[in-house]
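In this supplementary section we document a worked example of the pipeline. Step one takes a protein sequence of length 456 as its only input; no multiple sequence alignment statistics are reported here. Step two produces a three-dimensional model, which step three serialises into structure tokens for compact storage. The input and output of this example are shown verbatim.
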Amino acid sequence: MPSQYTASAAKRKPLTDAQLKTLVATHPDEWLRVFRGAAREFLRRERRRGLKKFPPEVVVETTGTGTLPYTPPEAERRPLTDEQLRVLLQTHPDEWPRVFPGGGETWLRGERQRAVEKFPPEVVIEMDKSAASDRSQSRDLERRYRASLEQIMSLQAMVDGIDSFPRLHARDMRIAAAPGMHEATAIAIASDWHCEEPVTLESTNGLNEYNLDVFDTRSKWFFRNLHNLMDKEARDVPIRNLVLAVLGDLITGSIHHDGAESNQLGPMDAIALVGDTIIGGVTQLVKDTDKSVTVTLVLKPGNHSRITPKQRVHTEHENSLEWLIYHFIAKQFAKDPRVRVVRERNLLTNLEVHGRMLRFTHGHAFHYSGGVGGITIPVLKKIAEWDKGRQAYRTFFGHLHTYFEGPNFTANGSMIGYNPFGEWGGAAYEPPRQAFDLISSRHGLMVKCPILLEAP
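The serialised model returned by step three reads:
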């Protein structure tokens, strides 16, 4: 390599032409690394010789057009080229030492004044506008980056603190009727609330509107209509148990840039809101139902509550705000004998109900790309693979914002309802709703219907 140089060579003879070009193209801070053992004063003399020896166009080509490093004493003798003057005009004074190292602020200001006089006013104005825009964008990106880092560090600290929470002991979660008795268990799915994400009538052509006030109304109707359905079905068969499966995406979070910009609440306030909503709703259900009814909460996180840019597999729960709030929900009902909590660090939670295995998951493992067959084909294929390990009577999930009762699965709708994201993806319009099933100890699945999120 022509840049290799030793101290003994530096004492005997000047640099070759190839080494001179390398010297001209090298920043002074790198001289002692590239030309090992050579004295800095010797290299300054050789650089001056190189600048005199080669034509200006060779020097510019060697150092990179438009960003020719400029160091004394040449800065005092040789004015900047037109190309360098344009770069100087577009560079903020704070960046001058980096772009023109060693040039000297006073000398560079003089050169800038010469550039202002040399170029037409419209050219100077356009360059100033470009420089101002670049600086503004750079400052904005830096502010966002620092804010994101602070939020990530704060959330990571909270997640790290989860390990200090008290661990609950595993209990037998099987639900079975008394021998010889006919009873049923209600299954309600709560998922895809996206509580803080706004939807306007304008953005959906008048089909849907969603905001914090609407979320408050719909969530109240969810618990009220769930109780009404249980009360209605209990006239035909006793209902001793309710499985309320909270399957995630209760918040939109900030995993997408447009959501981070438009959401009405930050992730922490949003997750606190849904936590209060669930605790309040379950407390009211326990109060309004017969004392013989037990509530089993199956708590699964979704993909929107993660605090990582990409979906994690092994550490999904440790990086989920929903998993964090589930700890508080479990702690809230830890001493209530009528409320049992199932929260597992896995993708699939299995719960035996009247001798039938029910499977619960958020649904982000299903990959549906809008095929004409709907969600049925990809869902049945995935369930068939899961059944090879442990067969389930029925699989319950959300994520797809599509209420559908399949032959061996229940896909939940959403509380947010139709939104611009669904419209962009070509999703069919669907009103906001959640799923309700009734499992009989004798007959299995007896009832399947949606839970309306408004007055009946």
